[in-house]
Design a protein that fits this description.
Elements: H1 3-24, H2 26-33, H3 39-57, H4 59-62, H5 67-90, H6 96-103, H7 106-118, H8 124-140, H9 150-173, H10 178-200, H11 209-233, H12 239-246, H13 249-261, H14 266-284, H15 286-297
Length: 298
Amino acid sequence: MNEAHLTSRTRAELYLFSLTIIWGSTFVLTKFILEDASPFVYVAIRFFTASLIFAVLFFRRIRTISKDGIAKGMVLGVFLFLGFVLQTIGLKYTTASKSAFITGLMVVFTPIFQLIIERKAPKTGNVIGVIFVAIGLFLLTSPQGSEFNFGDALTLVCAIVFSIYTVYLGVYGNDHDPVHLTFTQFTSTTIFATLAIPFLETAHLNLTSHFLMNLAYLAVMPTVVALYVMTKYQKYTTPTRSAIIYSMEPPFAAIFAFCIIGEHLGMTGIFGGILILSGLIVSELSDSIFTAQEKTLI
């Protein structure tokens, strides 16, 4: 692996890591926003707002989108829509911390789907990192006195959907403009959520000041900014490595949940967070560690 590639990958992974801080803040805010809006209404408004903002920012580039770009973006949009809806509905029945931690289990599923879809097996360091993260997430999803509930089950399916999304994002991101893919994801998610409203929920919406402020943040930072950065830079790393980086989202979510609404993890949860961080470090340093070992053996 040449130095230029390592530099671009390192830069990309730093960008992806920064997204986990933004995403970590969304779980508590989404629980707040669900007090004023039903899940499908919220998802539709959030992505409609993001679509408008994105259209204003990238109008000229969006005009050049191809039919294949639209098709690939819509495929990603299906997974994005399902993942967000499952996660959002799940948040009505579980805590912000548990939702984040269960979503983080995508790190376990991503290497499996990468093997199925791309026929690419993860490297040794990535596998070790996944094991650390999986154990850490198990501890984090088993806080004292908290049972596995309906919301947790929906969020687990969400984690599976997001792991498939992560693999396909890496595949399609190599051949298409990230602006085209991102905008199509936003618009298709908006359409799917809007069409589902009359069939899958009793819609309600209260346009309170808190709702509007939370919506503004959720539409801009974790949607327009984060998903564009994710679409643009994930192609410079592997799905497994990116999933491990995204596993830092739960610890950040736990910090926000503790600071804002007083959710506690306990010592078991803290130890789980340490294991997640250890897994991230092992995965990130895997190329250097195992390359050095191979040279030593030679």
